[in-house]
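Need tokens for this chain, all 327 residues.
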Amino acid sequence: MIYNIDPKVDCVFKAILGRRSRRHLLLHFLNAMLEDKLRYPLVKVTILNPYSSKDYETDKLHIVDIRAEDSRGRQFQLEIQRKNYTSLPERIVYSWCHLYQEQLEEGMNYDELQPVYSIWLLTESFGHKRLNAAQQAAKTATQTKSQPPPPLRHYALLDESGRAISDRCGGITICELHRFEFKDDIVSSEAQRWIRFFMEAHRLDSNNLPQWMRTKEMRQAQHTLRTFSANKQARYLYLSRLDAQREHLTILHEHDMMEQELQQAKSAQELAQAERDQAIERELRAQAEREQAIERELRAQAEREQAQAEREQALAELAELKKRLKL
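Here are the structure tokens for all 327 residues:
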């Protein structure tokens, strides 16, 4: 029986690109994904943490990445992430920084540092931190309509004019797999060929591959999927990892739902508090207006009384004047 094997499951992902016997696939993948970032194509890489099924037998939440370096000492990290969460951007930056700084051993100088290239394949959108109600309202009121970033993009340390702080930093590549759309047998680059493989390979018929899959690298990658399908032990490993990932994703989803509910409750509280504050402000304004009206009425009353007193005084003076004239 043939089983559909998803190359995005961590053990399969690493079996495809992390075997020393298949490091030419990793080499091809890196050259494809970093084509416009490398001055010259890579010709040789050494896998620093090669694939081993034992890595997955005891640790359900084992974090899987692939690390390699080339003959110049440049570092490469690959990781596939099937669930986005709020602090994922910080984790990505931290892991890149960690790989960069751990190059320096005792007695080494800064000029011996080599670039670090970190590639992350994501199956969900690369989100940003959630905003509270006030921040979201301010953003909605001021934001202009803009296009989303491309699904494959590179981050580097650059100034406002696009100049790099150093040519030995490397960078971070984010690839949002689910945002790519393919038609017919068309792929426009080797990077898109790999992306389409990770998105569609589990649905393909190994005996009738589409035209875009008929390259040496794609056939060898597809062979790894057939191995996981045909080999009982490999298939058991795949199913156990798939179950562990589903369990982990379910926990993360439930956590996200709880966090969203808390955020909604907090937003509702903030909105209610804002409405109460507005009501209090309206009442204070109304009270101030009433006090101003009373003050105006008191001034008017005082002015009327003063006018009445002045009239009475004028009448009294007039009466006194008439009296004197009679005398």
